[in-house]
């Protein structure tokens, strides 16, 4: 018998950390920027920032989601979401 469920859409989701955003060092981040830097794969459609590490420079995120803690950390240093 089959047990459980594994979503087929998980292969299109990715997570990045605050530390990764800090190392990227660009003021504006979107999906294309992350793909060009090699941080996410070409098949990825949804990216979420998770609260691991710290960010010290303001960054503008366009089309990228974030957890509550990551959103608070980014907005605390002057970052924005679009």
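^ structure tokens above, recovered residues below v
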């Amino acid at each position: 018998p089959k047990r459980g469920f594994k979503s087929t859409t998980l292969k299109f989701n990715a997570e990045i950390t605050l530390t990764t955003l800090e190392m990227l060092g660009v003021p504006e981040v979107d999906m294309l920027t992350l793909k060009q830097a090699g941080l996410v794969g070409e098949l990825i459609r949804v990216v979420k920032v998770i609260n691991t590490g710290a960010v010290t420079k303001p960054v503008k995120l366009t089309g990228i989601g974030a957890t509550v803690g990551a959103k608070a950390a980014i907005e605390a240093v002057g970052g924005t979401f679009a």
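The first helix runs from residue 18 to 24.
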